[in-house]
Amino acid sequence: AAGVIQSPRHLIKEKRETATLKCYPIPRHDTVYWYQQGPGQDPQFLISFYEKMQSDKGSIPDRFSAQQFSDYHSELNMSSLELGDSALYFCASSLGQLGRGGGTEAFFGQGTRLTVV
Amino acid sequence: KQEVTQIPAALSVPEGENLVLNCSFTDSAIYNLQWFRQDPGKGLTSLLLIQSSQREQTSGRLNASLDKSSGRSTLYIAASQPGDSATYLCAAPNTDKLIFGTGTRLQVFP
Q1: Does residue B30 have a pLDDT over 90?
Q2: Whole-number Å distance between alpha carbons of A95 and B56
């Protein structure tokens, strides 16, 4: 079965550089979520999109932006990278919105490991 | 604001034991709750989704229960194996996101 695809899997950037992470949701899934997970921490919610519109926002720095495109894939753009941005970045997708009722289940990708040096 | 906590934070057991992992949440107005498994440096694998209308959900050696009134969910692992070693996270939906617990790091030794 198709899963959530994230690219790249690994990324090394220097401070103050820009990075773009991509997420391809499971086919027919209309909702995408982005999470950041630091070493030894639980995943922290960044932002989500439903039907190409931002639906919820968490602790996402102003240096980060994201969008969901017409084919439902999403990109997380990170500028002016800092050492503290080094983390695993996960994308998840679902059919329908979490917390809106029904049997919506979220599926996660394998993540992008970003290292800022 | 939804807050999710998990106990114990870490667990080390010999192979074959039956285990109970605990998850507590503060906002009981949830539609469902998910349990995930995460291997070190890897992604999150969905183990079970339990609906608010259900009391239990089973998948193989895993059984999850949900008690909304008390704000608790448990994950029961039967006959644990070394391959079960991983971090287990529960997550509750809140508006349009999942709120994760801090996880239980499980080690099963032969």
Answers
A1: no
A2: 23
When pLDDT is cut at 50, 70 and 90, the band that residue A101 belongs to is low
Residue A5 CB coordination number (10 Å): 15
CB within 8 Å of A62: residues ≥ 6 apart: none
Q: Sign (positive/negative) of CA torsion B53, B60, A107, A28?
A: negative
Chain B residues in contact with A97 (beta carbon < 8 A): 96
Residue range A42-62, pLDDT digits in tens: 999 999 999 999 999 998 999
The CA–CA distances, whole Å, from B23 to A13, A110, B63, B67 equal: 37, 24, 13, 10
Identify the pLDDT of residue A103.
66
The secondary structure of B1-27 as a DSSP string is: ---EEEE-SEEEEETT--EEEEEEES-
Which residues, at least 6 apart from A104, have a Cβ–Cβ distance to it below 8 Å? A31, A94, A95, A96, A97, A98, B31, B32, B93
| CA B1 centroid distance within chain | 20
> Residue A102: which of B31, B89, B100 has the nearest Cβ?
B31
pLDDT at B13 over 90: yes
Nearest residue to A76 (alpha-carbon basis) of A114, A108, A27? A114
**Burial grade of A39 (CB within 10 A; 0-12, 13-18, 19 or more):** exposed
Is there a contact between B97 and A103 if contact means CB atoms under 8 Å apart? no
